[in-house]
Amino acid sequence: MRRYAPKLLAVCRARIGRDEAVEDLAQEALLRGLTHLCSLEDPARLGAWLRGIAVRVCQDWLRARRRRQIPFSAGNGEYANEGTCGPADASGPHAEQLEQEEQREHLQGAIDALPDELREPLLLFYYHETTYDQIAEMLGVSRATVNARLARARQLLAFRLAHLTR
Q1: Any idea what the CATH number is for the domain that residue 13 is in?
Q2: C-alpha span between 124 and 30 (Å, rounded)
């Protein structure tokens, strides 16, 4: 569990974006994996097998979430202007901290906008310090494919972030 939990967190994070449910989904994937461990045919593929379980757990969660969402247009808009304020004072001592937070949010938004096949290896590599070989094993692809996906993800991020600052 200690070995694969961070990787499953990255998989779930890549699939559903920033959400409080990421930890619960990764835990659910680990639980399902432990429950069905006897069905694992090749113990050497444990990482890829658990990743597949995590992907299915996230897909199930997303499907259920779509079913229970109520569109904003269905409301009468009575809360539309509640809690709004004027612009924040950008001259205070926290301006630099606010700017850094805004930059992090832009970066996170750009990462969230990446396709799953690019976002997942990116998060595994940079946020969970997973090696190319480990990522290749988890995703069931070659090391060269991992390298290509990371290069493409970096390229897209650089492009998107450069256009945000203009």
Answers
A1: 1.20.140
A2: 17
Q: What is the value of pTM for the model shown?
A: 0.52
Residue 78 located in a structural domain: no
Distance of alpha carbon 48 from alpha carbon 64, whole angstroms: 24
Tokens encoding 162? 């450069």
Domain presence at residue 103: no
Asked if 111 and 122 touch (Cβ cutoff 8 Å), the reply is yes
CA distance 24 to 109: 22
* 28-73 residue pLDDT tens: 899 888 888 888 888 888 888 998 999 889 888 888 777 665 444 4
Question: 86 lies in a domain?
Answer: no
d(CA 22, CA 26): 6
Structural domain containing residue 54: 5-68+111-164
Residue 29 lies in a domain: yes
